[in-house]
Design a protein that fits this description.
The complex is a heterodimer of chains A (273) and B (766). Chain A is globular and about 55 Å long. Chain A is of the alpha+beta class and 273 residues long. Chain A has three domains: 7-53, 2-Layer Sandwich (Uridine Diphospho-n-acetylenolpyruvylglucosamine Reductase, domain 2); 59-173, Uridine Diphospho-n-acetylenolpyruvylglucosamine Reductase, domain 3, CATH 3.30.465; 179-270, CO dehydrogenase flavoprotein, C-terminal domain (Enolase-like, domain 1), CATH 3.30.390.50. Chain A has helices at 14-24, 37-42, 78-83, 85-90, 92-98, 104-109, 112-118, 124-132, 149-152, 220-227, 232-236, 253-270, and strands spanning 7-10, 28-31, 50-53, 63-66, 69-73, 135-140, 143-148, 153-155, 158-159, 166-173, 179-184, 194-201, 204-210, 217-218. In chain A, a hairpin with a 6-residue loop joins strand 13 (204-210) and strand 14. Helix content of chain A is 34%, strand content 25%. In chain A, strands 4-5-10-6-7 form a five-stranded antiparallel sheet. Chain A has a four-stranded antiparallel sheet with strand order 11-12-13-14, sandwiched between helices. A three-stranded parallel sheet of chain A has the order 1-3-2, with helices on one face. Chain A contains twelve helices and 14 strands. With 766 residues, chain B is an alpha+beta fold. Chain B has three domains: 31-128, Aldehyde Oxidoreductase, domain 3; 291-463 and 612-762, 2-Layer Sandwich (Aldehyde Oxidoreductase, domain 4); 465-607, 2-Layer Sandwich (Aldehyde Oxidoreductase, domain 4), CATH 3.30.365. Helix content of chain B is 29%, strand content 25%. Chain B has 19 helices and 28 strands. In chain B, the strands form seven sheets. Chain B has a seven-stranded mixed sheet, sandwiched between helices. In chain B, strands 7-15-14-13-8 form a five-stranded mixed sheet. Chain B is globular and about 90 Å long. Chain B starts with 12 loop residues before the first helix and ends with a helix. Classes of the chains: A alpha+beta (273), B alpha+beta (766). The A-B interface holds A 1-2, 4-5, 39, 43-44, 184, 186-191, 193, 249-252, 255, 258-259, 262-263 and B 111-112, 115-116, 119, 280-282, 628-631, 669, 673, 681-682, 684, 686-687, 689-692, 694-695, 751-753, 756-757. The structure holds flavin-adenine dinucleotide. Flavin-adenine dinucleotide (FAD) binds at residues 29-37, 39, 74, 101-102, 106, 109-111, 113-115, 117-118, 123-125, 161, 166-167, 189, 191 of chain A.
Amino acid sequence: MIPAPFDYVRVGSLDEAISALVEHGEDAKLLAGGHSLLPLMKLRLATPSVLIDIGPVRELSYVVDAGDHVAIGALTRHHDLHHDPVAVSQVPLLSMVAGKIGDPQVRHRGTIGGSLTHADPASDLPAAVLALGGTLVARGPAGERQIPADAFFSGFLESALAPDEVLTEIRVPKAVGGHAYQKFVRRAQDWAIVGSVVARVGDRVGVALVNMGPTPLRALAVEQALAEGASAAEAAERAAEGLEPPSDNNATAEFRRHLARVLTRRALAEAGV
Amino acid sequence: MSILGNRVLRREDPKFLTTGGTYVDDLPLEGAVHIVYVRSPMAHARIHSIDSTEALRSPGVVAVFTAAEVDLPPMPPGAPFANPAMVRPWLADGVVRFVGDLVAAVVAETREQAMDAAELVLVDYEPFPVVIDPEAAAGSDILVHEAAGTNVVLRMPEDLVSVGMVPPEAATEPPEMFAGCEVVVRQRIVNQRVAPCPLEVRAAASRWDDGHLTQWTTTQAPHGVKASLAQIFGLADDQVRAVAPDVGGGFGAKIGAYPEELFVAWIARKIGRPARWVETRSESMLSLGHGRAQVQLAELGGTRDGRLLAYKLSVIQDAGAYPAFGAFLPLMTRTMLTGVYDIERVYFADTSVATNTNPTVAYRGAGRPEATAAIERMVDIFAAEIGMDPAEVRRKNLVGRDRFPFTTPTGTTYDVGDYEAALDRVLEAAGYSELRAEQQRRREAGEAKQLGIGLSTYVEITNGIPGSEFGSVEVLADGRARVRTGTSPHGQGHVTSWSQLVADQLGIAIEDVEVIHGDTDLVPRGVGTFGSKSLQSGGVAVFQAAEQVVDKARKLAAELLEANPNDIELDKQSGRFQVAGTPSASKTWAELARASGDGGLSAEVDFAASGATFPFGAHLVVAEVDTETGGVTLKRIVAVDDAGRLVNPLIAEGQIHGGLAQGVAQALMEEMCYDEQGNPITANLADYEFVSAAELPSFETYSMETPTPINPLGAKGIGESGTIGSTPAVQNAVCDALRHLGVRHVDMPTSPLRVWKAIEQAKGKS
Ligand SMILES: Cc1cc2nc3c(=O)[nH]c(=O)nc-3n(C[C@H](O)[C@H](O)[C@H](O)COP(=O)(O)OP(=O)(O)OC[C@H]3O[C@@H](n4cnc5c(N)ncnc54)[C@H](O)[C@@H]3O)c2cc1C
């Protein structure tokens, strides 16, 4: 439980972070809350040679009402997102999901930017941002670009960020209508065995699934069925369509498919769809 | 008024809750080197070569040791009757036998340096086929120990018969075992392997001073560690000292000393510097002894009106790669085979086998929970088969309160019990008929969330290993008392309870009683703390020593006050000895201690109880099972426990609470799993479903106090009852919730996946 040796750099601003990334190259990793990266390093499954600690970059911790959407700084911690009045009133789904992550210690350290960048299919916030149809903002030496959430999760634990880019902001449409997150766990602090997120955004219903494939993903078949006027129960039956969920000690792929259908049916009902 | 039976707050807690304890790894040890072991990543392999060149060049590295340098004979198996060829080398001698097996020891100036260097030790492994499944082990051509010629470690009852531990009649199944049984139910039951997970992982530190060894170690039995070290290194009694500072839990897995710990002393001697080792949590999951790991085939027969007549249990015990005490624990399963029931004909057989997995050891209950789980599950299955309420079947077969001492068909003599009262009490406290009515309502409504009601009526054996335990009491010149105890508390609150026992006898305030434990230089003899033995052995020893000290003081006071000893009374309010009728003529403890000279007011007792004691109780669990997801939520746990007279009900409750949580953990959550290649797949606390408070309902506990005649305190053990009783109650509740769907049995842990599969299977059948 001791990581391999590494160098540690602390930066105070976004620009410093980007310069440090450019300077140290591909072997460097940003350190935000550390709650995904450090466990991997302690198990020596990740061995970055340099850690660039962006913890002090407080300019990246905020939740603001930006008119048609809510903008969330990448370094906003789960606990703060859970309790933030703008989040609670304008995107209650996101605030609620943040409150279901891990345990209080994890929520006080982990950040939304870290959670999205880590791109773990078993994590909660990526699915919520997908269901909401969010947009991610990244900054690198070449400037800023926007990446739709749909295009962000590119593979298992892989995001669309370039090695020298920092995720700076997450934008989600305001969504005050029905919403739900059915997170199925054995222990309160666990990652979801399967989860189903439902968000009503305007007249669209977004549905995303947790731990149902190599990346966080949308339940496109369910969304399409709903758009075509299927009942919620009928739509939910299609939750696992085309998906290749993993098999592990907690669930076989077949059980995960079953859970996805049950949880999606429940989530749709809870969201009033 | 006696303070025994009072809820005295734990004296230990302020320290633990504020500054924290001092564990082995916290101890400063000047000049110490740090050890990190290189462990096998393979379950079974030949080692062709080990190349330490790179590691030796790594910064701070002092030495790298492999089997080639070890001059100690391998360790014999740690279980009676075990095949003697199943020895354990200190470091792998050409073959590794489980993932986590010790291959090399890297010694460096810092722990970090040792860990970095350990990664550089290059080991060339040639993988062998593995034997992981205990049911396949006995008949397998793949041998864990080639030299043994078999994977069978030991067999019961044959081995027991061979030394006369059980009569020859027990060697074979009685003819017509199930004669007269209108119904016989059979079930294969897996009592799964679990990881004990003490909060403090293993650690040891060694220092040699002119041929004298001091070993600091996190253990439940420091005197046992001392004896092991003396034997291994050929040391005299005064040449070795073992110290257990604060110990953060053991649950049975820290009774013996592990090779990793003992070898620290070898390294310290070899390189001539103090040495220390602490494992990581991941290492602890791999190689701290595991618990349980039995596969059972159970058959229970009886009549349609609910009378149980015959019970047979065949066990396969997974001993792991190097047989340790776990291999022998089926003896305890046999001891408690029939539980609280009066069953005439029984048969028990065990084959303990070696597999390419981590060795198994004692774990909270150690062989008894396996007995209780089997019989309690079988009674429920039997009840379902004949269509009778499980509470009713239990009631019909309980050993009656007028039949004690009661000797079971396996030859165990229960001291005292009132099983029916415990059953009545739990049914009443839980509101059994209302619960059944609610269950019926949900069944009829076909709700997704069904209710299960699980019962377990249990009896268990505590202080089951014959022998004595040491306790002494001394009153010091300042009027305070000093206790030395051979027990070795690691969470059980002995400091508080022993202080209470002494304060009760001496009339000295609890705060003025000092309790010394866990240091073989300060406590001359001791056995340690395990098997729920401490209060009824070590506690009694302290209690009796206190009585003797009072007698001595009374005589001395009589002399000093020139009175007849019979006229001297101890006023426990003031802590003064006074002449009856003339309270002005009195002597304080301090005065008497000074008058008696150094150590004059002291007594030592080695108390050996005439037998074991048998705590009992009844637990009822209400579980809500989501039949769509397989998820289980516990709604209530009602526990009635009888541990005889309680010295401190608060501490007893603490033991029950922890026990209930651990019982739930096994029934619902935890399983140490290996894949087919023998790779552990639950090797950290993210993958291993260690229970947390959020999964537990608020406990409803009730105590009964049926004193045992076995010791003067009337006390039985309480350390393991909660686990023994609750595990089957939880499992029974889950199975009960699914019974109307055609599900007969779900193995532990009753995970969502297992529950869902059981429902799907039942659907397929109907
Ligand atoms: C015990 C435990 C339980 C948990 N339970 C859950 C759970 O139930 N659900 C859940 O969703 N998660 C859970 N987590 C994970 C937790 O939410 C993490 O906090 C989160 O996944 C990562 O955020 P972080 O800030 O800690 O990221 P870090 O660990 O610091 O970083 C993660 C990765 O993202 C990169 N990174 C971080 N920030 C940025 C950025 N702004 N731009 C570019 N790259 C960046 C890092 O370089 C690293 O590769 C749990 C963690 C633990 C330890």
